[in-house]
Amino acid sequence: MSAALDADDVLRRAAAEVFEAVDAAVAGRGLPALAPWLLGSSPPSTRELARAATGAEQLALYGATVSAHEALASRFGEPAGVLGVSFGEIAALTSAGVWTVADGARVAHDLARVLTTCPGGLTLLSCDESTAAALVAHDDTAGVTVACVNDATETVVSGPVPELARVERRALRTGTTATRLRLPFSSHHPALERQAGRFAEAVRARLRASPRCPVYSAVAGGPYTAHDDLGARLSDCLTRPARLPAVLDRLVTDGFTSFYEAGPGTALTRSACRAMPFGRATFSSPLAAPRPRPGTARPENGEPTAPPLPPVAPVPPAESGPRS
Length: 324
What we know:
Layout: H1 2-7, H2 9-25, H3 34-39, H4 46-51, H5 56-76, E1 82-84, H6 88-95, H7 101-115, E2 121-125, H8 129-136, E3 145-151, E4 154-159, H9 161-173, E5 178-180, H10 193-204, E6 215-217, E7 222-223, H11 230-239, E8 242-243, H12 244-253, E9 258-262, H13 267-275, E10 282-284, E11 312-314
Parallel strand pairs: 1-6, 3-8, 9-10, 9-11
Antiparallel strand pairs: 2-4, 2-5, 3-4, 6-7
Catalytic activity: holo-[ACP] + malonyl-CoA = malonyl-[ACP] + CoA
Enzyme class: transferase
Protein name: [acyl-carrier-protein] S-malonyltransferase
């Protein structure tokens, strides 16, 4: 992300404002000030963030995602809709105006605290969902379940660490690559109902407004509705699987055909390109400064303007957080 900040003044200004709000929101919660740390001359590595106080890594992801969304919206106008995948659903709802950047940061930190009580882990398998389901469908791995379907070549499974190790060995014997994600918790697992209930209450305490644009969820498989209990729906990310191909198909069916990923990585864009048949939609990688379109006017501040973009997808990559 630091390279993108250096190359894009719009993004850098957005990040400064977002992380100022994030730091103020979680002051007193025992976290380092992220704005000077992340936006300074020597930003931390992901490992350094992971070793920091609980929630620092999640807040960094949240802030980077909202910053990218704000930069895209400043340059092109508000999106027609947003897509949230796993932890990115918090940023998606923030971007849609359900709560302020500060309240979204508090929700992100609330989730980080809940995740510390979610035993187990997550493993990425290089296969489709049906193959992953077959790999876990054994008596010695009964506690493992499909957590996230990224595309036909990537499926994440969740469960107790000893059982994940058995799945990984079984996968390797069948030629399927298995990679344990660097996350000290499980997610998207039906055994996490108690943790989901705690998180739902934290979400409900901070709800302020209805979304100003459609918000799609990879867990729900479609958009939130006016009748949804957003606390329950957001906490579903802890207990239910996320399926990116299915929600992308729904989005395209609903008329969305151009997508911009807002977040510090390209994992979602890669999966989306693999999941969607060629020609049905276009996907752009995150944090690449959009160039003005031919014939685009420039206002007095020198920034290009353009018609509003279709959905921005504010989602972190799988290796940095659960993609639910």
